[in-house]
Amino acid sequence: MVKERMIGSNRMMKFMKLTEAEIEKMYQCRSLDTEVVLRWSKLLQYDFFRLYSQHMILYAPMPALKMNVESTSVLPQFRKNIYTPEIIEFILELIDTEKKTKQQVINEYKIPKTTLYKWISKYRQRN
């Protein structure tokens, strides 16, 4: 992304408040602190967090909520999974190219059957 945005090393060093060697070392890191990722997102005007949130939606969907049980969590509970257009397109492409069957998609990604069939009817009508 740095190359694509043509960000110079001086600008990166000033914005990140790091040396060139420290920035180069960051490229080799397996993981980065969220504050560092946020700074990169701001510098490059790209939402790196979206990559992770889409991964979580795709591979670890929210568990079904029990309606009669009160939640003791102080965190907000989402009532519905949020699938981005990119995820929907990816899933439908898997089916269209026959890399996965509808049943495999339902089982592997925990997408409700009705949701998948709604996507198929809705997005295939547009094409």
Give a structural overview.
The chain is an all-alpha fold and 127 residues long. It has helices at 2-5, 9-16, 20-28, 34-44, 48-59, 85-96, 102-109, 113-126. It is elongated and about 50 Å long. Among the domains are: 2-46, no CATH class; 85-126. The two termini are 31 Å apart. The protein contains eight helices and no strands.
State the main characteristics.
127 residues; mainly alpha; 61% helix; Transposase; Homeodomain-like_sf
Summarize the structure.
The protein has 127 residues and is mostly helical. 61% of the residues lie in helices and 0% in strands.
Q: SSE layout and pairings?
A:
Layout: H1 2-5, H2 9-16, H3 20-28, H4 34-44, H5 48-59, H6 85-96, H7 102-109, H8 113-126
Share of helix among residues?
Answer: 55-70%
CA-based shape: elongated
**Poorly predicted runs:** none
Task: Count the DSSP helices.
Answer: 8
Distance between the termini: 31 Å
Determine the mean pLDDT: 82
The main β sheet shows up as:
none
Roughly how many Å is the radius of gyration? 20 Å
Q: Indicate the structural class.
A: mainly alpha
List how many beta strands DSSP finds: 0
> SSE string, helix = H, strand = E?
HHHHHHHH
Strand content: under 5%
